[in-house]
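Aim 2 progress update. The chain analyzed this quarter is reproduced below.
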Amino acid sequence: MRILTDVMKSNNYAAEPMLQSCGVKISSRFTQVEGRVLSAPKLKVGNGDDVIPRNRRWNFNSKRYFEPVKIEDWAVVNFSARCDIRSLCRDLARFGEMKRIFIRPPVEVFEESPQFRRAPAPVRVDKMFEQIQARFPKDPPRFLLCLLPDRENCDIYGPWKRKNLAEFGIFNQCLAPFRVNEYLMNVLLKINAKLGGLNSLLAIEQSRNLPVVSKWMFYMPLLVNLAFHLLLWIYSICLLEKRRMKLENGTSNSIDGENGLERVHESGFDMFGFSNPESDKVTYWYEIGEACDQQMAEGETEVVGA
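Predicted structure tokens:
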């Protein structure tokens, strides 16, 4: 923070003529805001074990992965002149077994020809892929483990990644020629994730106390209102049909224009069109026009029978 503050002071933005002409002022002090430090999340790994960070990192050395994968169809590409491939594959298989990752022996080991070791990096990569395509003309291996040259600053990494990912779509992992147990563990973490495995879960992701909200939610007053409108519509259709039939037979109707209500005199007819043997004449009221809509909106609609 002290370095950043010194840089701000040395830049002296307040004396910049262009900023002064535009009326822009830049303070030499950083804006201070209140913040808080969140605790590091707890992780869940294989067998339900918890991983708590120590010294700002999670240590997976003695833990199993949450969902380990199987590494079966894979090959090794060796750009290093002094790496023991067999020993490396044995170490990977041994550490993978500790993590419950099943690793078969590689189907092929491709060694770089000594005559191309001083060639430009893209040429070395192209020559290596010529070997791979000659060995697997149709389907290349699903995963390639690449051993980089011994030099610390390797220029093969970029062309190799571009060739694998952009042109062939092959999962791959680059590996330095030296082998340290912790380094191999970290490499297995990356390989497991690249091949579709799951190294860990956040502890909160396994919580079963999650609210479940269904999209099929009904508002009961709305259902009641819809049901009432449906019954009223059926009732009105029945009355109108019955009235038409009675008019054809000479039955009289009277309309109460003052209340906007129509009185229908029928014999032995209930609201659903069934006969009523206990009554010779039943009078039904139903609402028409704007009076019906207004009363239904106010929840005051009634069907009266006398």
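Helices lie at 2-11, 17-22, 85-98, 121-135, 157-168, 181-194, 220-248, 289-298. The mean pLDDT is 77. These observations will guide the mutagenesis experiments scheduled for the next reporting period.
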